[in-house]
Amino acid sequence: MRRRWARAGVGALALVTAACLSSLGPGVSGIVDVEAGSGGGLRAVYLGTGGWILEYGGETVLTAPLFTNPGLLRTGLLPIRADTAVIDRSMSRYDVAKALAIIVGHAHYDHLMDVPRVAARHAPGARVVGSRTVANTLGSWSGLADRVDVVDDSSGDQRMRGRWLHYGRGVRVMALRSRHAPHFDGYTLYSGTQDTPRATAPEWATEWLDGQTYAYLIDFMEAPDSVAFRVYYQDAVAPPPAGFAPEPLVAERRVDVAIVVPATFDQVDWHPEALIENLDPRWVLLGHWEDFFAPVDAPTRSLRLADLGHFEARLDRVFAGEFWRPDLGTELRFPAP
Predict the structure, then answer these.
(1) Residue 326 lies in a domain
(2) Degrees (nearest 5) of the Cα angle 43, 300, 39?
(3) Residue 224 contacts by C-beta under 8 Å, 6 or more apart in sequence?
(4) Contacts (Cβ under 8 Å, ≥6 apart) of 219
């Protein structure tokens, strides 16, 4: 048994089971309470693909989910569109009406296609945060033209701090310049930029171009200059140092929870090792790992299980803390530092 899971009995990991138990090990479901009963920390709910609900201190941020999950053949051969019934059924399980922002890392269909429905019906006050390609892909057809905050001119990187965007009473977001790893053999699907606003919705998967990819730092603040909880979020594997947080910023305040992506990690070198060194996180969550060609209500399964195990073994060698790979709908609770 891995050493950190052996410590579970002495309080490093407590599992709260309000009618359901979470399994030990990276794969978890139900409710996972890292410090049972502590309260006042971060609540993170995995919605699937790049989607998360992040709540702290009464404030909520979403990252772009996909519920429609068109099948592999349909995605390759036929037009695709958001399934509003599936989106509404999935999102109605959660109260995100007061969400402040929906954060989008890139504009592929599996990250952006369901956002207009989520923003219009379930998070009507949320700003959409993303690239110029995200804004132009949403264009005028989505009804979100006046709700998109473009981060191209405010982003940072490993060496340079970006500009914080502020939401609500105590949330700030910094975009970090990243790059989408290849899907296979050095080739990235649907690569390119959308340079003018679209008047109609994309019909084909090939029309959802990725644009500039971003990772993000999401800070929940307890005072104007004091971070209560820091989250790092990526929705695509990136070749180091793309997607890194500014080193001076992390030296001042480490990341509490890092959300990282295993998919296609074998297409780049030193992922996740280099990213873990850059972020120095307390805990790690794996997102965008599951087969998103399967219906969202089907049992969660990996698209490439062998590669996922390899990724987890590599993460385990360089990261001394706890990490989890949540099934869809899993809720994780982290204490305030």
Answers:
(1) no
(2) 15
(3) none
(4) 164, 171, 172, 173, 174, 227, 228, 229, 230, 231
CA nearest neighbour of 235 among 213, 211, 212: 213
Query: Sheet containing 171-177: which strands, arranged edge to edge?
Result: 27-28, 322-326, 283-286, 257-260, 226-233, 214-223, 171-177, 165-167
Residue 35 lies in a domain: no
Q: Which residue in 230, 233, 14 sits closest to 102, CA to CA?
A: 233
pLDDT tens per residue, range 198-225: 999 999 999 999 999 999 999 999 998 8
Structure tokens at 80: 């695709």
DSSP letter, residue 169: T
Q: What mean pLDDT is predicted for residues 144-150?
A: 98
Contact 236, 105 (CB under 8 A): yes
- pTM exceeding the 0.85 threshold for the entire prediction: yes
Does a structural domain hold residue 335? no
Secondary structure (3-state) at 206: helix
CA atoms of 51 and 67, how far apart (whole Å) = 9
- What would the two tokens of residue 249 be? 């910023």
Structural domains counted in the chain: 1
Q: Provide CB contacts within 8 A for 121, sequence distance 6+.
A: 84, 87, 88, 91
| Structural domain span for residue 141 | 47-285+314-319
